[in-house]
């Protein structure tokens, strides 16, 4: 009977003790290989309470010359960095990065739509400033709700 008495006394007290609540974060990520050429990469989107807080993409293009290094494209933007502006537009998070291009008239934008799948639309991203020569970002990357393999779509 003593264990029951213990619970009756201390359980109500435990409810009054404040607990730190960790921010509910979720990370969705996947890897991909393109059917054309020698291209592979990965993508990760971090969400807090369903809102996009960070986007990371790395695309690696191999060099067809034996022993020569390949080329890499990267995206790494978060809401708390000083290089990007974040907004919401028609159900998508729009990230505008002003530090990518030296041309002030050229905007670098990425759209992220969250649903069962996460879609990263890179059509507005400027590959020539984010990638090494001979490489480009995909037009879109879809991180599926189930599975670890992205669907990456490249231009023609």
Describe the overall structure.
By secondary structure, this protein is mostly beta strands. It has two helices and ten strands, in the order H-E-E-E-E-E-E-E-E-H-E-E. It has helices at about 1-15, 125-130; strands at about 25-35, 40-50, 50-60, 70-80, 85-90, 90-95, 110-115, 120, 140-145, 150-155. The strands form two sheets. The chain has a six-stranded antiparallel beta sheet with strand order 5-6-7-8-9-10, with no helix packed on it. The termini are far apart. Mean pLDDT is about 80; it is low at about 5-20.
- Our count of helices gives 2
Radius of gyration: 22 Å
Mean pLDDT: 82
Major sheet characteristics: 6 strands, antiparallel
Percentage of β-strand residues:
35-45%
Order of helices and strands: HEEEEEEEEHEE
Amino- and carboxy-terminal Cα gap:
75 Å
User: How would you write the strand order of the largest sheet?
Assistant: 5-6-7-8-9-10
Domain count: the total is 1
Which structural class do the helices and strands define? mainly beta
Percentage of residues in helical conformation: 10-25%
Coarse shape: globular
Strand tally, please?
Answer: 10
Record keyword descriptors for this entry:
globular, disordered N terminus, four-stranded antiparallel beta sheet, mainly beta, six-stranded antiparallel beta sheet
Summarize the structure.
With 156 residues, this protein is mainly β. 12% of the residues lie in helices and 44% in strands.
SSE arrangement:
Elements lengths: L1 H15 L8 E9 L5 E10 L2 E11 L9 E8 L5 E6 L2 E6 L10 E7 L3 E4 L5 H4 L9 E4 L7 E3 L3
Antiparallel strand pairs: 1-2, 2-3, 3-4, 5-6, 6-7, 7-8, 8-9, 9-10
